[in-house]
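user:
I keep going back and forth on a fold encoding question. Separate attempts, laid side by side, tell us more than any discussion would. Would you put together a sequence-and-structure record for a protein of your own picking? Write it directly below this note and I will take it from there.

assistant:
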Amino acid sequence: GILVKAYREETDSGEERLCYQIFQRVSGPDLVGLIHALLSASAEDLNATPLTMRKPQSHETMRICLGATLGHGASGDVCVGIQVPDGAVFAIKGLGTSSAGSAHVAAELGVLRALRESDLLRGKWVNLEAEEWLLNERPVMKLPLFEPSRPSLWRRDHIGGVFDALRTIHAAGYIHRDIRPSNFAFKRIDDRRIPLIIDFGCAIPDDGVHRHYSGSKAYASFRFLDDDGSLNEKASFQFDANDEMFSLVLTMFSIFMTADGCIENQPLFCRAKPGEVRASYRNFWTTRLPPSWLEFVTGLETRVGVSGDGVYERVQSFLKDNLPQLPLFAHDLNDADA
């Protein structure tokens, strides 16, 4: 997990400010030292002055204190639970100190600005409620706390809304590039739960520029793989909507047709141990997808550059014809809405 250490530091002007240091996957001496510091800290130390965020081009400010960690991405785009004095609870994304984490936040804010200018979504199917704030003059995102995606919340009828959202994202000139089960969240709208597409940190303009693959390798198009089936991390590619559709098909298969609803939890897609030999990504999918599914995604892989040729309709029709109305392994259906 993540541990956040806060401490006071005196500036050149003699003023005191609160700083923080984020430890990811802490272990060994660092963990021992941090635990010792926490155990020996006074109540005053543990209740240090809250951080102050401000909204750009506004006089609005907010005093916050770090709460429970919600999660983080591999690039350091840490998302931390926040509570303010009036009791409001939300999340702040972008507390990571890495340049990659800052780039993810910048990319996400750019996409959300473009999508807000479109009236096609009207707030549905994509999380447009993120706000841009500044913390120590660095952009961060204030996010509502939506319900995490889990199989019992999904219905085949949601597919149409997901496609409306993806088409709007693409029409706005962007490729999400990281469609997977964990990048959906659920929100109540009009007395029902609907899935929202979230996390645009890997999004890129649909400008034809060649880039390296970024996103979950568990749902990558086969064309991003080497001959041995491993992820090609050296070559650059031109991305288009077919790649998004490929990831979406594998995502829906994971949610509706697998026992845990999230293939990326498989050991194959976690960080390999030194000297560990893994089966190839391609073999992983070819041994799990039914023949009709494998044939369909292979067709998407070979149709790069022709995404406008009815790809949305073909993929939507395929999913509606091949997915059950309810996920097969949703064990907690009693907790979800009918």
